[in-house]
Amino acid sequence: MKLYQLHAKQALPISKKEAWEFLSNPRNLKTITPKHMGFDILSGANKNMYPGQIIQYRVKPFPFFNTKWVTEITHVRDGDYFVDEQRFGPYALWHHKHFLKEIPGGVEMEDVVDYKIPFGFLGSLAQTLFIKKQLETIFLFRERKLNEIFGKVDENSSTLNFKSI
User: Fold this and answer.
1) Which residues pair with 162 in a beta bridge?
2) 0.90 cut: is pTM over it?
3) What is the domain class of 3-164 according to CATH?
4) Is the pLDDT of residue 155 over 80?
5) Between the CA of residue 48 and those of 19, 34, 87, 115, what are the distances in Å?
6) How confident is the model at residue 153 (pLDDT cuts 50, 70, 90)?
7) Which residue has the higher pLDDT, 91 or 63?
8) pLDDT of residue 1
9) CA nearest neighbour of 75 among 66, 84, 62
10) How far apart are CA 36 and CA 127, in angstroms?
11) Matching SUPFAM superfamilies, A to Z (predicted)?
């Protein structure tokens, strides 16, 4: 199985504290997820993020395919970063690091997602044919939605890259 990595950065004209308050509230994840994903939080989102928190979602990653996704918040440094890891769901591995850094005029959000697709060769083919595009769509939607909510720093303040590791 190949390991893939998604790396995204986005600058927003808000304080680090304001960014943290929004991003550390699991209920806000639905706001920044495309509607076609059928994303619903089933349990575990009644508190802001803390290590050991288990959050259950129902998600529709592809048409006609619903699945339950269970993540654990494994690391939190209040105001700086948190890590969520899939415990059950569509990936063989999902390890998502969220970082916040103060920059002139606001905050930079950085996401690093390391993931594996199950099913060997078929999973690699699926990555090429549609999984990479689906993740790109989700992260670009999130970028646009956060810009809509908070404003944007400038046109070149965001990046989204994929690579195989």
Assistant:
1) 6
2) yes
3) alpha beta
4) no
5) 13, 22, 19, 25
6) confident
7) 91
8) 61
9) 84
10) 19
11) Bet v1-like
Q: How far apart are CA 29 and CA 132, in angstroms?
A: 20
Give residue for tokens 């690579």: 163
Q: What is the mean pLDDT of residues 111-124?
A: 94
Q: Which two tokens stand for residue 124?
A: 């690699």
Judge contact between 122 and 110, C-beta under 8 A.
no
Q: State the pLDDT at residue 38.
A: 93
* CB burial readout 116-138, b (16+ within 10 A) else e: bbeeeeebbebbeeebeeebeeb
- pLDDT value at position 114? 97
Cα–Cα dist 71/39, whole Å: 14
DSSP code string of the chain? --EEEEEEEEEESS-HHHHHHHHT-GGGGTTTS-GGG--EEEES-SS---TTEEEEEEEEEETTEEEEEEEEEEEEETTTEEEEEEEESS-SEEEEEEEEEEETTEEEEEEEEEEE-SSHHHHHHHIIIIIHHHHHHHHHHHHHHHHHHH--S-TTSEEEEEEE-
* Torsion angle of the four alpha carbons 114, 76, 150, 14, in this order, in degrees rounded to the nearest 10: -120
